[in-house]
Write a structure and sequence with these properties.
alpha+beta, three-stranded antiparallel sheet, two-stranded antiparallel ribbon
Length: about 160
């Protein structure tokens, strides 16, 4: 930009040159590169390359192995419990989480109505229920039966 004085537009000083001269071409016409593919063909080609290449190298142990996916809703499937982690002697206590804030011991006992219960503890902080509790059962088998109820719906909560 040329500097002007007095707010008047001054005459541009300089030389007018052609675009080829400005870009530094030696006088030869600029080469035109024609794309061989349009953008859709390029995207399709990239997709085919990524589809054909496996990002997870196959190991010999996974070849021919059939993976069976669950065919029933989660609530109707049985729950596998590792009985080795359940104590042989008491107390047989289960943690019960995601409880509504208005739950009390009676309602929780009704939820486990078919299982003998010794005690229900619902911790509070500053007079407000925390949303979880502990249920103590009579024996090991009762605890296992209660653990089978994992992910059951209780007052519209899982």
């Amino acid at each position: 930009m040329a500097a002007t004085t007095g707010g008047k537009k001054g005459k541009k000083k300089g030389k007018t040159i052609s675009l080829n001269d400005f870009l530094g071409d030696s006088g030869a016409s600029p080469g035109v590169v024609k794309p061989t593919l349009n953008w859709a063909d390029e995207a399709d080609e990239e997709f085919q390359m990524s589809f054909n290449s496996n990002p997870y190298p196959s190991s010999s142990s996974n070849k021919g192995k059939v993976i069976q996916l669950p065919t029933a809703p989660r609530s109707s499937r049985s729950i596998d419990i590792d009985t080795d982690r359940i104590p042989e002697t008491g107390p047989f206590t289960a943690f019960v989480g995601n409880l509504p804030y208005d739950v009390d011991q009676f309602v929780l006992q009704q939820f486990f109505k078919d299982i003998p219960i010794l005690n229900v503890r619902l911790p509070e902080e500053n007079g407000r229920f925390k949303g979880f509790g502990y249920v103590q059962f009579n024996d090991r088998q009762s605890l296992i039966q209660a653990l089978q109820m994992n992910e059951e719906t209780f007052q519209k909560r899982i």
